[in-house]
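User: structure tokens for this one?
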Amino acid sequence: MTDDDAAFALLSRQITTASGFALAAYKDKCIRRRIAVRMRACGVHTYQDYGALLAGSPHEYERLRDALTINVTRFYRNAETWSLIRRVLLPELLGGPRGELRAWSAGCASGEEPYTLVVLAADYLDREGRGDELARVTVDATDIDRVSLERARAGCYRSEGLAELPADLAERYFEAAGPCRRVVERARRRVLVRHLDLSTEPPPRLEYNLILCRNVVIYFDRAVQERVFQIFAGALAPGGFLVLGKVETLFGPARDRLTLVDPRERIYRRPSS
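Assistant:
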């Protein structure tokens, strides 16, 4: 181990102990890159100096935590995936007289993903003349980034953030809120936003029939990825779907518990029996 590696390991232990953020779950390359951003912002050049700065500045831990979390998201991101969810998954899950949607957006960032899902569910039910059944839709939206979770709870976004969402959906399910657009209340209240560290904590509940976790697990190391996949497999109800990001592939024991139903869009399903 080089002196630099030893200094990084010491700093990682300090951050994990002081902040509770489990750095060991993430790939070193990602963590080093984000710590470097904060070091440059603070004008320090070594891991030892940054550790000393952290020890004397609790607020820097908050800034570092924000820098370490991944917040790349937008409405209707990867349109092909959403189109398949809209065309195939939602009609199957909501189509029957007792249809319901219990979903988990794991790594929801500032809320664009869970609200996209709720808007699509509302659109499907409204078109079927069943708009009053939106109460059967519940989406747990979880993340670890405090600023992103505050934005998700507000459900308010700049108009340009809706650019990829089909125009009719943006028109019907968002309302003016000053310079921003806010998810309409009947859809917004179907999303339950909460803090959860996917790398260390159990799921909010069980028996989901849809779990979305896109472009999140790629930042974890392989052991944590396997554990998270096992959590997803166990949290799905029989017949439930798991949607991963296009660059992510299910592996480990969970692969034997779920069936790949769409290789292009990385959609898996738990067998019904």
